[in-house]
Design a protein that fits this description.
Blueprint lengths: L2 H25 L2 E7 L3 E3 L4 E9 L11 E2 L1 E16 L2 E14 L3 E5 L2 E3 L2 E3 L2 E6 L22 H12 L5 E7 L3 E3 L4 E9 L3 E8 L6 E5 L10 E5 L2 E15 L3 E5 L3 E6 L9 E6 L3 E6 L12 E9 L3 E3 L4 E11 L15 E3 L3 E9 L2 E14 L3 E5 L3 E6 L4 E6 L3 E6 L13 H7 L19 H24 L3 E2 L5 E2 L1 H16 L4 H16 L9 H18 L7 H18 L1
Parallel strand pairs: 2-10, 12-21, 23-31
Antiparallel strand pairs: 1-3, 3-6, 4-7, 5-6, 7-10, 8-9, 11-13, 13-17, 14-19, 15-17, 16-17, 18-21, 19-20, 22-24, 24-27, 25-27, 26-27, 28-31, 29-30, 32-33
Helix pairs in contact: 5-6, 5-8, 6-7, 6-8, 7-8
């Protein structure tokens, strides 16, 4: 091969390579434009922003530029255009947004960057009112623009101007006639012929005249279930279920509810969107319940039982009586236990606890009331049957569920009838292991004394009492309404004990015992015949302290103890 032919061959190879590379370079070239249809608009006007890429090698995604004083109210709408001029083909793709000014002043569409290309920012001036004139749309007899672009009309319909999707929302009650307190299930159904991307209330439903409980949605196949409405086939899905109990008689109406339904994109030119659908109002006829003595409004099917936590109890200790109602109905409504009065025993107000779950048939489970019973006399304590009255919808009448009678054996000495005495220290220790009550705190156990020793001690006590009385009078002690004098030292000690009951980490039993001790220290024994305001207040405080002391541990009593100690301190400062 000659040198000249080698040079020619090299030039030919280089030319061929350039010819191969030029189309690739051409394919990689495109332009990016950012345009608005007006640079000066009114606050009530809208602006159309169009982002266009033209040429080959354009990126698939064009980001929305930053916006100043502008909101996007519609879009993006995407369109493509292909043109052939002089045998050469070019293509472009556009994204359009509709923008709304937010305030009078300066607005801006920021710079756009995509695929290594950029389009500069666009400034817009926003003035008050409306600047742009809205021209009436030209339409033919079929409602189309006779001068419109057929391709644009086609793409526009594909972007969302097609026929409205077939969607329905329905509120369906399980029944429309029932008694007060009976349950009905209200189901909200979505009927659709298209894909849905989102569903939410625009206006939350209102249920005036009903007690409302949420229900779990039933397991439905992902494809829904077939349904036909006015000859049209749909797939329907339960979206919400409520359990409603009417609380009053009459004609009750559940107002219409408005749902906002998001539409899923179904194609390249479909931007999705959302529509609103409204349910029809639902009217329910509610009949009243019979009005009978001892009936508190329970509706359903129930049974009642009663039990004691022990068969025998030493005198001065407490027993717990549990009254339990279980079944299905409106049990969550019922918050009052039976009236329990036992001659020969102090009964404290009950604490209640529930084990309930919501089902389509009603509220199922149990409710238990626990009464603390403190016997005041020894012997057999008879507890008569307790009754629970409810309306049975199946029988159509009020039915009484009754417990079996119970007996509690009280062991120990006899306590005279009257106000509840404080339990002994040994009884308290056996019952809970907590501190004894006020009558045993700080007092030594009595020993056995001879008659001579008793006489001597009685005389000594009289002398000491006279001396103390004189000393306290000199120190300015204050006489109580019963004649007892409360010394400043006793008052200060009582207030310190009440502070400790709140401040120190104690059980409720220890705190209540300390409150009793403080009241005893400040006021002593309150005679039964004393009906003064002071006596009634102190007796009420002692009752509350004993209630906290004996109440079952069903929760946190710290707030109750704080309130009790605060009221006791106020009484001590006022009357001791």
């Amino acid at each position: 091969m000659s040198l000249r032919s080698g040079v020619v061959s090299g030039r030919a190879l280089l030319a061929a390579l350039l010819l191969l590379l030029l189309p690739a370079a051409a394919r990689a070239q495109f332009t990016l434009r950012s345009e608005v249809d007006a640079r000066k608009v009114g606050l009530q006007d809208q602006v159309q922003l169009t982002l266009t890429v033209e040429g080959s090698g354009a990126p698939d995604e064009i980001p929305l530029p930053p916006l100043v004083n502008l909101d996007v109210v519609a879009g993006p709408f995407q369109s493509s255009q292909v043109s052939i001029v002089n045998g050469r083909m070019s293509q472009s793709r556009s994204l359009s947004y509709v923008l709304q000014p937010k305030a009078v002043g300066k607005a801006e569409v920021g710079a756009v960057h995509a695929g290594g290309q950029s389009a500069p920012a666009v400034a817009i001036e926003v003035v008050a009112g409306q600047v742009r004139q809205r021209e009436p749309q030209r339409q033919d007899a079929l409602g189309r623009d006779p001068f419109g672009d057929p391709l644009e009309d086609f793409f526009g319909r594909r972007r969302g101007r097609a026929e409205a999707p077939r969607l329905l929302m329905e509120a369906q009650p399980s029944r429309t006639r029932l008694k007060v307190g009976e349950p009905l299930v209200l189901t909200y159904w979505l009927y659709t012929q298209t894909s849905v991307s989102d569903l939410q209330f625009k206006e939350a439903p209102q249920f005036a005249g009903f007690w409302v409980e949420d229900l779990e949605r039933a397991q439905t196949p992902p494809s829904g279930e077939p349904a036909t409405v006015e000859g049209q086939s749909y797939r329907r899905f339960p979206v919400l279920k409520k359990l409603l109990f009417p609380t009053r008689a009459g004609s009750l109406t559940i107002p219409a509810s408005v749902f906002r339904v998001g539409l899923a994109r179904t194609g390249f030119f479909d931007s999705g969107g959302s529509v609103e659908r409204t349910t029809k109002p639902v009217t329910v006829e509610v009949e009243p319940l019979p009005d009978e003595s001892g009936f508190n409004g329970a509706v359903g099917r129930f049974r009642a039982t009663a039990s004691l936590d022990r068969d025998a109890v030493p005198l001065g200790e407490a027993a717990t009586l549990r009254f339990r109602v279980e079944g299905t109905g409106n049990l969550k409504w019922i918050d009052r236990g039976p009236e329990l009065a036992l001659p020969g025993a102090k009964v404290f107000p009950p604490q209640s606890k529930s084990d309930l779950r919501t089902t389509p048939d009603g509220i199922t489970g149990s409710r238990t009331w626990e009464f603390v019973v403190v016997p005041e006399t020894s012997g057999a304590l008879e507890i008569r049957p307790l009754a629970f009255r409810y309306f049975d919808p199946t029988a159509g009448r009020i039915v009484t569920a009754q417990t079996a009678p119970l007996a509690l054996r009280v062991e120990g000495g006899t306590v005279a009838a009257g106000p509840l005495g404080a339990p002994t220290a040994s009884a308290v220790a056996r019952a809970t292991g907590a501190l004894p009550l006020r009558s045993d705190l700080g007092r030594p156990a009595p020993g056995v004394l001879s008659s001579h020793a008793l006489v001597a001690l009685a005389g000594l006590a009289l002398l000491l009492h006279a001396g103390l009385w004189g000393a306290e009078r000199l120190r300015g002690g204050v006489a109580t309404s019963t004649g007892r004098t409360a010394s400043p030292r006793s008052v200060r000690g009582a207030l310190r004990d009440l502070e400790r009951a709140v401040r120190d980490a104690m059980s409720k039993e220890q705190a209540a015992s300390l409150v009793e001790k403080a009241l005893d220290e400040a006021f002593g024994a309150i005679p039964d015949a004393d009906e003064s305001e002071r006596a009634r207040a102190v007796r009420a405080l002692l009752d509350d302290a004993r209630f906290v002391r004996y109440a079952p541990q069903l929760g946190d009593y710290s707030d109750k103890v704080k309130d009790l100690a605060a009221r006791a301190a106020e009484a001590v400062r006022r009357w001791a």
